[in-house]
Structures are given as C-alpha cells and as structure tokens.
Fold:
Amino acid sequence: MTEQAAQTEQQKGQFAIQRVYVKDVSFESPNAPEVFRGQWKPQINMDLNTRSNKLADDVYEVVLTLTVTAKNEDKTAFLAEVQQAGIFKIEGLEGGALHQTIGAYCPNLLFPYAREAIDALVVKGSFPALMLSPVNFDAIYAQSVQQAKAQAEKSTEATH
Structure:
C-alpha cells in the first residue's frame, strides 16, 4: 500500500460496536387482571428518545429509550420501557458526521434489540405479541437538526 493510500484509509472514519446491552427495563400492567376480561382493541403509543455520553476519546455510549403504552377502553393495559444501550468506538469523524452517526446510525443499530426486548416483556405480561414497525432514525435526526436551526434563527431574530 502506498503512503498516500494509507493516509486516505486513515482519513476514513472507523466504526466498531464494542457492546450492546440493556441498561434499564420496566413493565407495568396496572389494570390486570381486569384488563384481560374485555375485548382486546388496544391503542398503542410509542415514544423514542436517545442520549449519548462520551466515555473516552473516540468511545461513546448511546442509549435508546423506547416506551410503549397500550390502552384498552381508556384504561392502561400495559406500559413497557427499555433503555437499550451500546458502546461504540467512532474514529475519524467530526462535526456533523459524528453527530449523525451518534444521533441516527447508532440508534438504528440499537432499535431491533429494543424492539425484541419490548416484545418479550409484552408476551410475558400475557398480552399478544407486539411487532413494532421499523423507525427511520435518519429522518428523525434530520428533523431535529432542522428544528434546532429554526430555534437558533428565532433566538437570533429575538435578540436583534
């Protein structure tokens, strides 16, 4: 490999998953056993949240919090929450590329694990299996960037 090719290779970002783990898990069925007596026509609500911590140089923890609430006839059937986390080594990325990797790519990798954990909790709670649809984290990230820009513009306009 030539020196120029080696430098080009080093300039590319490197990404590695060091660990994927459940950080916190919770399941509640506040209206059991009464909730099992009626007809099952649930209204499902899903909330997503992500956060990250820098653990060391080029090492980040990303936590995806997935909360699913099911209501049946205006009564909470269950509330399931998983904080699915991962430790990622991310080298050679800066600025927007690093933020997008942490804000979209990492949560995209964590989501299938969180979805599986939620489904297992729901089934163990004696409810029908819950197959959550995939999430477009790139679109969510792009929307949050747009909202941050709009907020910054409003703040700038308000001070002038």
